[in-house]
């Protein structure tokens, strides 16, 4: 992922989505040769020189000030997440610094792993910034990936990735009745991460793999959606428990590894809470029916 290409494509996609009237400029009668705003219109509305804006869009500007980026963000009607993404792309020194590749695969934070194992009735997972599953508790595994080996996250070569699963695993795709909304959010979140971790080879390989193997991912990626997602609601249709509406919350671990925990819950007294209890009961029966080993 080249810096110039990412920044240029992002800015072009955002000015293509606006008209002069939307940013307070008059619409001239002349026939327009480009969709959306021209570079000179963005520069005029933002109060920066055309040369300076052009150099920025081409990735040739050095030491871009906060004031200039803020003005461009306002002109292009960027959301707070998109504004952060612009800062990451335009000023790479503010994004995650380049780090040498670790010879050892990432492992789930020990304390966090102990914590999710105490959630006997609550689905929980530990993810890294790439959305690789570093660990899940039995309920998390049963909710999202019961067709997979429970121990898969412990083996780097078999480690599940939630974004890859969403686009390339039919079992996971079938979990989401509103799959297209989930897919859009997943791509938008990955875009934000990719802007922050532009030197992450494994992240680039993940994006490349999805671009090659999923036209739906490639189409969404080309639109440059950007959005963070740390909490919200998921609609699922589980093969064992049926439809459920679950709230989720992410907790970022304050370490350099960028690990986070995600836990799912249901509203008290709801049919979704009953569905989670059914899953927990299923898990309990499965463990009870497993014969004990003998020496």
Short note summarizing the structure:
This protein is of the alpha+beta class and 295 residues long. The chain contains 13 helices and 5 strands. The chain folds into 2 domains: 92 residues, Orthogonal Bundle (434 Repressor (Amino-terminal Domain)), CATH 1.10.260; 180 residues, 2-Layer Sandwich (Beta-Lactamase).
User: Which structural category fits the helices and strands?
Assistant: alpha+beta
CATH arch. level architecture of the largest domain: 2-Layer Sandwich
Mean pLDDT: 88
Q: How many domain units? A: 2
> What is the N-to-C succession of helices and strands?
HHHHHHEEHHHHHHEEEH
What would you note in describing this structure?
This protein has 295 residues and is of the alpha+beta class. The protein folds into two domains: 3-94, 434 Repressor (Amino-terminal Domain) (Orthogonal Bundle), CATH 1.10.260; 110-289, Beta-Lactamase (2-Layer Sandwich). It is built from 13 helices and five strands.
């Amino acid at each position: 992922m080249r810096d110039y290409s990412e920044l240029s494509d992002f800015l072009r996609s955002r000015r293509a989505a606006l008209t002069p009237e939307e940013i307070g400029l008059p619409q001239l009668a002349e026939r327009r040769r480009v969709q959306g705003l021209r570079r000179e219109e963005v520069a005029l509305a933002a109060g920066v020189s055309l040369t300076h804006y052009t150099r920025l869009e081409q990735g040739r500007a050095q030491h871009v000030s906060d004031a200039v980026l803020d003005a461009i963000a306002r002109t292009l009607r960027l959301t707070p997440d998109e504004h952060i993404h612009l800062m990451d792309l335009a000023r790479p020194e503010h994004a995650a610094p380049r780090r040498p590749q670790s010879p050892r695969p990432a492992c789930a934070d020990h304390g966090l792993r102990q914590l999710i194992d105490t959630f006997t009735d609550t689905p929980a997972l530990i993810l890294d910034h790439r959305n690789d599953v570093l660990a899940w508790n039995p309920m998390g595994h049963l909710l999202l990936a019961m067709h997979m080996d429970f121990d898969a996250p412990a083996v780097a070569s078999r480690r599940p990735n939630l974004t890859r699963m969403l686009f390339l695993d039919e079992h996971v795709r079938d979990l989401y009745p509103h799959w297209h909304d989930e897919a859009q959010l997943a791509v938008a979140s990955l875009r934000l991460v990719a802007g922050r971790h532009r030197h992450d080879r494994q992240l680039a390989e993940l994006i490349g793999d999805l671009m090659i193997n999923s036209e739906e991912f490639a189409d969404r990626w080309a639109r440059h959606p950007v959005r963070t997602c740390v909490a919200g609601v998921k609609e699922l249709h589980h093969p064992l428990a049926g439809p459920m509406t679950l709230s989720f919350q992410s907790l970022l671990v304050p370490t350099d590894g960028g690990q986070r925990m995600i836990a799912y819950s249901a509203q008290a007294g709801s049919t979704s809470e009953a569905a989670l209890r059914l899953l927990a009961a299923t898990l309990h029966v499965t463990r009870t029916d497993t014969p004990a080993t003998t020496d």
